[in-house]
């Protein structure tokens, strides 16, 4: 049965994922059926105690959508029925970064560099609006690519920050105190219930990059309480890094993962960090010539960057057996807190999603990332339509 949401429509059989109080469907534009969208249906019964949170989140999404930033998921429409609030967002066809890492284990430094630049682009957009995310993690970073590419390379992938259920506006010099986020990626100061500012997002970025490099979170424990106890006991946190990690990436990770936010790298220094600069290469030698024949010298351009494998990965761990893949749910997705379970993982024997499969995670807070209760409707512009058509 087809359901109508403003200029969009969806069929309930086209389920993408679900959370505690919401489900997400793949839909499409009614006048342009080739344009896919993601439609989140939130039950009104779940919204009784969270109306202010919803209004705040929708305001944040409105502000960010005005920017039309390529690394931030855009809000397209918001409608309500007697039973549901429907949120229409742009569709990302490559799944999320968590699944991307689950499939690949670790990423090369060149790929980490590409992804970090895009994350930085998204954070610049948030900063321009005075927004702190507070729940940055691989599950909340969606991937998009040209749908015509069956196995896209990292150069073909666009990252988009999603799930602003915990986000808030935070003025310079003002500290927040709400405990929120996902413990493995949550800044020390948040987990210890101390006041915090936008530098909490820097810690989360550090944990994401560390997982990209090693396949693990930098500091782990079986429970949030155990992780908090670990942070309380260890005043000098030093993440262990693979020995072949470049000096630039080591410096970046160590300074993102400073326990004291005052010692943590600033956003400005992150954006200008040497690791994000093009890697140095050796000049290509001129091949020798013998009687007019070019002889291959066997030497090519060398980037000097390491390709880390899962066997290289070393992490500081409270519980060595606990890794992000273990912290994520069993393959059936039942224990995934704060993120939509993937419909394609409803069977424990199903394979993880990969770019091109259309599997995705529109993450949410504990309420399924509910958004606005109002009659807000944001009319997407032609540029966004064209961009999304190219991703099909």
Automatic annotation (TrEMBL):
Q: Which residues form the Protein kinase domain?
A: 10-276
Annotated region Disordered: the residues are 303-392
> Is RNA-binding included in the keywords of this UniProt record?
no
Locate the compositionally biased regions of type Basic residues.
333-348
- In this chain, composition skew of type Low complexity spans 303-328, 382-392
Q: Where on this chain does ATP bind? A: 40
One Gene Ontology CC term in the entry: cytosol
Q: Which SUPFAM superfamilies match?
A: Protein kinase-like (PK-like)
Gene3D superfamilies, per database record: Phosphorylase Kinase, domain 1, Transferase(Phosphotransferase) domain 1
Q: Does Coiled coil count among this protein's keywords?
A: no
Q: Which controlled-vocabulary keywords does the entry list? A: ATP-binding, Kinase, Nucleotide-binding, Serine/threonine-protein kinase, Transferase
* Pfam families in alphabetical order: Pkinase
| Positions with biased composition (Gly residues) | 356-367
Q: Which GO terms describe its biological process?
A: autophagosome assembly; autophagy of mitochondrion; axon extension; piecemeal microautophagy of the nucleus; positive regulation of autophagy; response to starvation; reticulophagy
| Family according to the record | Belongs to the protein kinase superfamily.
Name this polypeptide is given: Serine/threonine-protein kinase unc-51
Organism, scientific name: Aceria tosichella (wheat curl mite)
């Amino acid at each position: 049965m087809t359901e109508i949401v403003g200029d969009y429509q969806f069929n309930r059989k086209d389920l993408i994922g679900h959370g505690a109080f919401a489900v997400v469907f793949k839909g499409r534009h009614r006048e342009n059926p080739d344009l896919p969208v993601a439609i989140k249906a939130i039950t009104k019964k779940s919204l009784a105690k969270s109306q202010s949170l919803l209004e705040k989140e929708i305001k944040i999404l409105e502000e960010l959508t005005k920017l039309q930033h390529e690394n931030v998921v855009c809000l397209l429409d918001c409608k309500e029925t007697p039973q549901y609030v429907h949120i229409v967002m742009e569709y990302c066809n490559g799944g999320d970064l968590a699944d991307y890492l689950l499939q690949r284990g670790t990423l090369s430094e060149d790929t980490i560099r590409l992804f970090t630049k895009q994350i930085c682009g998204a954070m610049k957009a948030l900063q321009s609006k005075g927004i702190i995310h507070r729940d940055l993690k691989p599950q909340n970073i969606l991937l998009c690519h040209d749908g015509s590419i069956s196995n896209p390379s990292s150069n073909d992938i666009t990252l988009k920050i999603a799930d602003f259920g915990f986000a808030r506006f935070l003025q310079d010099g003002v500290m927040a105190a709400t405990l929120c986020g996902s413990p493995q990626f949550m800044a020390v100061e948040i987990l210890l219930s101390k006041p915090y500012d936008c530098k909490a997002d820097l810690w989360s970025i550090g944990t994401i990059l560390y997982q990209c490099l090693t396949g693990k979170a930098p500091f782990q424990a079986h429970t949030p309480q155990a992780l908090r106890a670990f942070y309380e006991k260890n005043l000098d946190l030093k993440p262990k890094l693979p020995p072949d990690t470049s000096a630039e990436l080591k410096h970046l990770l160590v300074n993102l993962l400073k326990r004291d936010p005052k010692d943590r790298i600033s956003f400005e220094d992150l954006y200008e960090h040497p690791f994000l600069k093009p890697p140095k290469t050796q000049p290509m030698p001129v091949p020798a010539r013998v009687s007019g024949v070019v002889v291959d010298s066997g030497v090519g351009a060398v980037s000097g960057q390491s390709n880390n494998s899962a066997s290289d990965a070393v992490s500081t761990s409270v519980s060595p057996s606990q890794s992000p893949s273990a912290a994520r749910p069993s393959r059936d997705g039942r224990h995934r807190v704060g993120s939509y379970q993937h419909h394609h993982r409803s069977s424990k024997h199903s394979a993880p999603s990969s770019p091109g499969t259309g599997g995705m995670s529109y993450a949410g807070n504990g309420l399924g990332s509910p958004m606005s209760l109002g009659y807000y409707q944001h009319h997407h512009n032609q540029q966004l339509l064209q961009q999304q058509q190219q991703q099909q």
